[in-house]
Design goal:
Layout: H1 3-14, H2 18-27, H3 34-40, H4 54-69, H5 86-96, H6 101-110, H7 117-123, H8 137-152
Length: 153
């Protein structure tokens, strides 16, 4: 999935406007205007569409964690992870929404996309680990749909 699709899904899920999305990005230390965010959430065929850079997506995900859970002053700020892969997006959303393994299964089951426990845990392993598996677009898309159902009710 491209970053614009993910931003669009998260914007709908959280029921926020472009200004609030820019504020979420600012929580992680990057200033982005609401107008720039508006370009990132447009569809490719719409006028004013701008591809979302890796850096903005990384800052948005980190800002979302801070927005949902609060800033942890006891730890030093983590460096921004670039490039942003589907696995990274999945990990950050898991942290931001405080999802346990059972919650992840419930989210995917809600959209009829069951995944076994070993398959799911392989998505959260470090790159290079023997059991690491890259997260596909279809899985991420279904995860975002299921999470939207969970958050929006």
């Amino acid at each position: 999935m491209n970053h614009n699709d993910v931003l669009r899904s998260l914007r709908y899920m959280l029921k926020v406007n472009d200004q609030k999305m820019a504020e979420i990005v600012a929580l992680s230390g990057l200033e982005v205007t609401a107008e720039a965010m508006a370009g990132y959430v447009k569809k490719e065929e719409e006028p004013g569409f701008v591809p979302c850079p890796e850096k903005v997506m990384a800052h948005f995900l980190d800002g979302l964690v801070i927005h949902r859970r609060g800033r942890d002053d006891s730890r030093a700020p983590q460096p921004i992870e670039v490039p942003v892969t589907n696995n990274t997006i999945l990990k950050k959303l898991r942290v931001a929404f405080e999802l346990k393994e059972d919650d992840l299964h419930a989210v995917l089951k809600a959209v009829n996309f069951p995944v076994s426990k070993p398959e799911l845990s392989a998505l959260f392993r470090k790159v290079g680990h023997d059991n690491y598996r890259p997260c596909g677009d279809q899985l991420l898309r279904n995860f975002l749909k299921g999470l939207t159902l969970r958050v929006r009710g």
